[in-house]
Amino acid sequence: MKRPRARRAAALPRLTRRGIALVVVGLVLLVVTLWFDLRDVMLLAFIGIALPLVAMLYVASGTPRFHVLRAFAPPVVSAGGATGVTLTVQNLGKRAFDGASWRDTAPEGLTTPAEAVLPALGAREHLLPQGDDTARLEYRMRTSRRGAFDVGPLRVTTTDPFGLARVTRDVGGPHELIVTPTVTALDPVIGTAAAVDGVMHGLQRRTHPNSDEFIAREYRHGDPLRRVHWPATARRGELMVRDEEQRGDPEARLILDTTLSGRRDRGALRIGDDPRHAGFELAVEVAASVGVHLLERGFRLRGDRLDDPARGPLSDASPDGYRMPGGDRALLEDLARLESPVGTRRHASGDVALPHSGGTDARMPGYAVLVDPDLAEAQHLVALRPSLAPAVAFVVSSVSSKVIDVLEEADWRIVPVRRASDLPDAWARAGAVKAGDEPPRVRTARGAAHAR
Amino acid sequence: MRADPTLATGQRAMPTVQRAMLAGATFLLVMVTTSALGTLIEGSGWWWLCAFIAACLVSVGLGLRALRTPPALVPLLQVGALILLLTLVFGGRSSFALIVPTGETFARFAELFAGAERTIQQQSVPAISVPPLLFALAVGVGAIVIVADALVQDARRPALAAIPVLVPIFIPGFLIEDGAEVIVLLFAGAAFLLLLRLDVRVRRRADLAHRDDDEDAPVVHAPRRVPIGSTIGATLGVGVAGLVAAAVLTASTPSISQSLLLGSDQSTTLFSRGVSPFIDLGRDLRRPDAVPAFTYTARDGDRPYFTLLTLDRFEGEVWGVTDRAVDSENTVDRMPRPIGLDPAVETAEHPVEVTVGDLRTVWLPVPYPTASVEDLRGSWFWDRESLTVRSVDASTAGQRYVANRLVATPTADQLRDADLLGSGQFQEYRALPDERPQIIRDTALAIAGGAQTPYDAAVAIQDHLRSSDFSYSVDAPVEEGYDGGGFDVIANFLEVKSGYCVHFASTMAVLAREVGIPSRISIGYTAGSPTDERVENVTVVEVDSHDLHAWPELFFPGVGWVPFEPTPGRGTVPSYTRPDAAQSPLSPFGPSTSTPQTGRPDLDPERGLSAGPGASAPDPVAAWTRVAALVIAALAIALAPALIRIGQRWSRRRRVRHGPGRAQAAWDEVRATARDLSAGGLETETPRAFAAHIAERPAFDGDAGAFLAELRNAVERERYGPPAPSGAAAGGEAGLSTDEILRAMHEVRAALGADAGASARLRARFLPASLIGRARGRARPTPAGA
């Protein structure tokens, strides 16, 4: 609403306070000189009036031409962090350029410094460039929320040599800055430890038939006996186990509620004038923390949207899920780019297309982050439940109790998350749930997987 | 607030070099504008003096700022430096170690100041730069420099420096028709632009060089080699285009005649544009009281007439003085031989020691002719034509001087034998308006028609006027309604044949011109009456207002101007005007004929003759205006702190409404109020400490305490909380709305006021203590403009 008007007004030359003062003094002088018929001082009166107008004409004429490059270091920054911005401004004009100041523009949520002086730039150097036509501007930009932001354009205010008039122009284009959701470190011991060794693709194992050649390491307390590497044990005379965790390819599933199709209006918690959906932002943060944690633990991560868990990847950019190395950054970037849901439903509530139940070789850990799903989406989760173990649903406060009932009925573990700082506790609770109630089930699953 | 960023960094410390550039531009501007006074003042010495003063003051300011003197102190110290400089230049021997003023120095300054006032009233254009005028110029330029310097260097609003420097530019416009010279004005404009340009440059330099402590502040890497002339073209282009546009606009603006707006009242008291003394002696004549004018002792027994001024221009209605500028070369220590006196004629000098009493005019009573005048105070200059002596900065009151009277000794025969004048010579002394009453021609023809020589004609005219037909009367002309000296008056006088010296003198002068003899009227004193007192065995002669007189002087080639005495019963008839005594020496007012005067008219030297329009008796209206102006000025000075404080409050309210720092602005106001009321409010206190401090006061028990807490919370949130998102409403989700802030501010202030005593409230209103700490509290950067 505000920006277009501001931009339009900015393109017009305006008088500075000094210019206004000069015009006012000139007008007063003019009245005085006419009154007393002082033709001599009238000259000064007209200087006071005419000079600011000439200055306005000057700044309005001659549009400067610039080439603006903007670089971020680091290029991806997590919300709440800061990134260094380097602007390279090159004068493309044939004449030297002086008397301007600059200010970078950015959407809300990013800080830009106050207006500063743009140093004089020489004329464009076609031959033998020495860099005298280029200035480098650096500043630190602080971020407060995740998202993909267009930083820019650079706003250059040109002032005439006497500081009487100025005109503000936008030069260069915007550059994108990714601000990823904040990642909360989760306790590595709890939660996934039990699941790691069991959930593996048997197929994967078969592609590595010569597991005998795996480097064996000595037995440590707690290693399952089935991993004892007997030939090596025989050779070494002590218990050796296969050191093959790294070679395993465990997969986990992360399902994020991106549509908020339940009760749209209720979830619209707003903090201050932040236009974003507070619950959704929390959910993104939970998903980011859990996802990064899983990736770091060696899982291959499949991210899905709740409204279409089978065919709806979180981002079209990574339809095959995420894996290390680099998977965490890709995940965070995709999460950063997630638009706040606008609440349009993708499909009718009654038509529940039960997804393919996976089939499958193995159960994998599944984590759902729910903001405000409707019952149809809850049914998706229920349908997925058999292929997931453990199945944990992080729910923010806006999830309706009906949905929670349905999920609990289907044996989803419900872990409520109220704010980001609760996340480590919630994670611990998710782990405790498995440690307490689930072990038999997990063991069964493991057994099934092992049987293959 | 950020809208004007190039100008928003006023408070940063500047390197001395850049300060020096600004100071140089300020100096240039002041001196260029001061030179606009060049059309008013003779010579150029005064300009160099002003330049010296200005340069010293600018350097002092520069030095003080380089030493990081608090900005509020610099102008005060500059004023001190100005006093030292004035002592150096004007203090003379009264100073201690050349520059340290003593009480005597200040007395001298007061004297110079009074003299400056007089000289400004008395001098015509171009004025002579006498010491009092120099003093006034030095003080004025010093004040302008100090103000301009503070505006440029501390307030960082160089555009406003235009206002003080306009003063010298305005003055010529009010005094002379052409006003200041165009070239000077153009240069002044250019100097002003130079100042603006340098300021912009200095600001940009300072901003570029400035490294903020804030780690988020931008770092700018400029190109290594900046094109030096990058903006010279633009600067010249914009500047010249502006000046040319202004010149074209000025030339094309029609002049609104001021008579349309103001009537034709052109009377000026500053540097009056020439003197036109309409000598209305009639009014003075009816004053009964005689006032002593002066006394004199003449070693050689002279009893001369004393001339004050000479009227040489007759315009039909009125006699006047040809407006001749005072020539600064014409100092009274050496005066020339009178015009027309043949160099062969032997002369002698007779000293006449004069002691002036209450007479207060700018014209010095001196005998005609006089060779030199000694021991005068003030600056006195003689006029080439009339050899009258006038002052530009002093008055005659209390003067003691020696006038060396030039005594020539031609005889009446020489007068008779004098050459006839060529038709072109002394034209202005023979000029008469064409339209004159017939009776004047007739009378002239009847009296002098048969005269052989001009001298005979002159004697005939004098004899005619002194005949028994004419009678001396002070009152008759008024009763008959023909007072004055114009044609109609003369015509009337020739019929009624009754009048006083003005009528006789002007009639003789007109009749003399009618027959072709150059004539003029001198006004002054007759020889006075001797007293019993003797000084060094010389009789003291007293001259009082009854001796005031007017007489004609006629010109004879080779002899010069010769006085006549047509008024019966007044003065002495010069012997040479009696043909039977033709052999007696030409000593018009010689001692031999000096007798105590009888039938002296009652004349009051204080009126009409005193000093032209500037010194007329105080008009009651003018006096009231002056009193009113003084009262207004005094009120303005007395109310200035209160007004400044009100303005401050107003601007803070505005900040509360429009930001930034709404709560802070309200808090500042509350704290300032507390300081005004001596209820705490130190800069060093945190909002919480301050609030706790004043909340103990009894008035804060009720609502006011709650409002105070609200306001305190708001200001704390603003100071320490996360910055409100730009574009967000004031205070965000938990802050106060503008109206609430204003309301709370009002309530807290009211409570503070209710708590204080009446005297404290009065003091808070008229002498707000919070203003004093302000200059020091400017450290936090505030956006500056203009």
UniProtKB/TrEMBL annotation, chain A:
Work out whether the entry's keyword set contains Cell division: no
Q: Where is the DUF58 domain?
A: 216-294
Keywords linked to the UniProt accession: Membrane, Transmembrane, Transmembrane helix
Q: Superkingdom of this entry's organism?
A: Bacteria
The record ties this protein, via InterPro entries, to: DUF58
Which residue ranges does UniProt annotate as crossing the membrane?
20-36, 42-60
Location of region: Disordered: 305-326, 431-452
Name of the protein? DUF58 domain-containing protein
Q: To which species is this protein native?
A: Agromyces agglutinans
Automatic annotation (TrEMBL), chain B:
Keyword list (alphabetical) reads: Membrane, Transmembrane, Transmembrane helix
Transglutaminase-like domain residues are 493-568
Pfam families (UniProt xref) = TgpA_N, Transglut_core
Q: Which domain of life is it from?
A: Bacteria
Q: Where would you find the membrane-spanning parts of this chain?
A: 20-40, 46-67, 79-100, 133-152, 159-176, 182-200, 232-251, 623-644
Nucleotide-binding: is it a keyword of this entry? no
Q: Which PANTHER family match?
A: PROTEIN-GLUTAMINE GAMMA-GLUTAMYLTRANSFERASE
Protein name stated in the entry: Transglutaminase-like domain-containing protein
